[in-house]
Amino acid sequence: MRVTRSVVPNLFTLANLFCGFASIVASAAGTFERAAWLIVLAAVFDMLDGVVARLTDSTSEFGVELDSLCDAVSFGVAPSMMLYMVFFNQWTSWGLLIASLPALAGVLRLARFNVQLTGMEDKLYFRGMPIPAGALTIVSYVITIERHDVLPPDLRPWGLLTATIITAAAMVSTIKYDNMPRPTARAIRQRPVVFLVFLVGLIASIVTSGAAIFPFMALYMVGGAIRHVVASFRQRRNDDDDDLMEAPDPDPFEL
Fold it and tell me: Where residue 131 falls among pLDDT bands split at 50, 70, 90?
């Protein structure tokens, strides 16, 4: 086996997978906060493998496929396992189906992304919420809302059900979501507001020991949906204006 520089980013990708597997084990043992932080750590490795691949100029189709396989475990199966162990196991077969939604939607999202991939350059937007963002939304909801009894006991199951369904739907939707900007001068100049928002969210999450992750992810998900609705409304209005516009009279002096 020939060792190349692509090994370095692939090691970060495999570290992502290891964290996902460790999170599944932690959820099975009932240590949900540990499981949640392992998924957050997997997201960090998922971000770093892309950065390292570009720094070493070692992006490849193999790396893309490996990343998708690891993401399916860390950000699909691991959050679904947490949902099932936290509550949905009480709903037997229906609970099993509902808990599997993030995994099912995440795998569909990854397959669609790989089919539509046309190059190795960073994209400004993703079609559908990225699976790491979906996983962070789910696990941060479990730890912030579910485990700390923020909602009344009779509303907790419905809150968890709603968060699960909406997050899964966002991943398989056609809504455009911002890609996390890289910490480079070019990326900052290209989208300064987006970079600032992500930076504020990161700092707030660190300062609050993770408590700000769910509000930030909820804002990310809802903000993308609102922008999509506004853009669709404007597009529809422009199309209607084009349909109502009469064709101009011919110019008799134009040959």
Answer: very high
